[in-house]
Design brief:
There is one protein chain. The strands form three sheets. The protein has a two-stranded antiparallel sheet. Strands 2-3 form a two-stranded antiparallel sheet. Strands 4-5 form a two-stranded antiparallel sheet. The longest helix has 20 residues. Helices cover about 40% and strands about 10% of the residues. It is built from seven helices and six strands. A hairpin with a 2-residue loop joins strand 2 and strand 3. The model has no long low-confidence stretch (mean pLDDT about 75). By secondary structure, the chain is mainly alpha-helical. Helix 1 crosses helix 5. The protein has one domain.
Length: about 200
C-alpha cells in the first residue's frame, strides 16, 4: 500500500550508515535546489527533535526494550524528515536502506501511530543489513558508523567526514585512502561511467 505521496513512515527515526549519508551528500551537491531546501528545513527539524527530549540516550546493556519504546515515542511526535517536500521524498533515488527496505501491505492510515489498528499493520522489512555494507575504512573502525540520517548528512556537509564520530579519530584518513589502490579503482570506474 506504499505509494508516492504517502509519507506516514517519513516521521520515523531514520538511521543510516556513513556510506549512505555520503551518497546523500554527493546527491545533494549535484542537486543544489534539494540541498538548499534541506538546509532550510534542517534547523526547524533539529529544533523540534531537541525539544522532544533525550529519546535516544544510549540504552543500558540489558535495556533494549527502552530503546524500542524511544523509537515508538519518536514516531508519535510526527516530526517529518527534513528531506520531505510536499509528502514526497526529495532524495528518493538515494534514500537510506531503512526507507527503501520497509514495505506495508495494510491501509496506509494504519501506519499512523495513533490509529487504533496501528499494531495490526502488516509491514515487511527486507532482511539485509545495511550495516554490513563495507566502506573503504571499515578495517579501521571498531564497528560500523550508523546514526540519525539527517544529522549525519548535515554533519558531513558542515564538517566533512571528520565530523562523524568514529571516523574523526582516524586523523590520517586522507593519506590512508586518497591514494589507496581500491579507492582509486572505484574513482576511475566512476569517472569512466559518467563520461
Amino acid at each position: 500500500s506504499c505509494f508516492k505521496g504517502c509519507s506516514r513512515c517519513c516521521s520515523l527515526f531514520i538511521g543510516a550508515s556513513v556510506q549512505e549519508a555520503e551518497a546523500i551528500v554527493y546527491y545533494l551537491y549535484r542537486n543544489e535546489d534539494k540541498l538548499q531546501r534541506f538546509l532550510e528545513n534542517y534547523s526547524t527539524w533539529r529544533e523540534k527533535v531537541k525539544k522532544s527530549g533525550d529519546l535516544f540516550r544510549k540504552p543500558e546493556q540489558d535495556d533494549k526494550s527502552r530503546n524500542i519504546g524511544d523509537l515508538a515515542a519518536y514516531a508519535r511526535l510526527k516530526i517529518p524528515c527534513p528531506f520531505l517536500q510536499n509528502d514526497v521524498c526529495s532524495i528518493y533515488e538515494v534514500r537510506p536502506y531503512v526507507c527503501a527496505g520497509l514495505i506495508v501491505t495494510t491501509p496506509p492510515e494504519w501506519c499512523d501511530p495513533d490509529h487504533p489498528k496501528h499494531s495490526e499493520r502488516k509491514r515487511y522489512i527486507i532482511q539485509q543489513s545495511a550495516l554490513a555494507d563495507l566502506t573503504f575504512y571499515w578495517k579501521n573502525l571498531k564497528k560500523p558508523v550508523w546514526s540519525f540520517m539527517p544529522i549525519m548528512v548535515y554533519d558531513i556537509l558542515e564538517y566533512g567526514l571528520k565530523g562523524i564520530p568514529g571516523i574523526s579519530k582516524m586523523g590520517d584518513l586522507l593519506s590512508r585512502y586518497a591514494y589507496d589502490r581500491d579507492v582509486q579503482d572505484v574513482i576511475s570506474r566512476y569517472r569512466n561511467s559518467s563520461v
